[in-house]
Amino acid sequence: MQRKKIHMLILAGGLLGGLAFSTLSQAADPPAAAPAASAADAEKAAKEAAIKAAIAAPPADAAMLANTCAGCHGTNGVSGGPAMPSIAGMPAPYLKTIMADFKSGKRPSTIMGRIAKGYTEEETALISDFLSKTKWVAVTSHPNSQMATKVDAAKAKKGKKLVSDQKCGKCHEDDGLTQDEDTPRMAGQWVDYLIIKMHDLSNKHLKIPQPEKMQKAIEKLTVQELEDIAHFYASQR
Ligand code: HEC
Ligand code: HEC
Description:
Elements: H1 2-28, H2 30-56, H3 62-73, H4 92-104, H5 112-117, H6 121-132, H7 153-165, H8 173-176, H9 191-202, H10 212-219, H11 223-235
């Protein structure tokens, strides 16, 4: 205890000594010290100006805002993870509706509700416009696609028949390639994500927004059939 105190005193003495020394040396050589101080001042002023400008700035530009989405949905909406949907090229009105539904809680979610709440309507519109101009890439050609469940040709074949029997193509035209104002593209989506989504959609208690006709059809499918359909859509380009 006693020794510690002494050490502290020596340390304090050293600091004070140092301060006194630097004050003395400044006093002894004022012209050299002056420009150094003003350069530091200028830097500080520039930093403050930048902070003020950032605070006063109008909504950040769309690409910057969409960067947050990239953290999970991949650069330009092309997802790098099998359970995370690709959202590239989705039509802006579809994105806006989805984000509004996540925000209001109408659309159940694990994370998106909280994320959507962080943006104003104008910011969501900017992000949606930006993402709608990005290009959809079939994730089966993504470098990370080996992480995903392999698209199984036999399952995809069964899925193709099911989709035809169930007339899913009435809305999901061209084997899921179509992307329009209210229908998402599914051709080339991650198979793991589609499997999860098909299971969720088949459970009407989750109340995921979807056309009644679709819900009625999916509800009757077996777990295996739901997965076959996921494999079919994922296998398309
Ligand atoms: C922390 C990770 C994360 C971030 C960041 C994130 N998302 Fe999501 N997103 C998810 C998850 C997970 C889902 C699936 C729904 C859920 O469980 O929340 C999802 C679902 C979606 C969907 C629905 C896709 C579909 O096919 O149904 C859209 C659209 C979407 N996100 C848009 C965005 C936009 C726009 C941003 C940026 C403002 C964003 N997300 C940021 C994780 C994220
Ligand atoms: C009446 C038109 C219609 C029919 C028929 C239909 N769908 Fe859909 N489907 C939609 C719409 C609209 C959405 C988007 C719902 C939303 O998220 O708001 C959707 C979404 C989906 C999704 C979610 C995709 C994603 O990325 O989130 C899957 C999977 C899906 N449909 C599969 C099917 C299957 C399988 C069938 C046939 C059994 C089918 N649909 C029949 C209109 C339809």
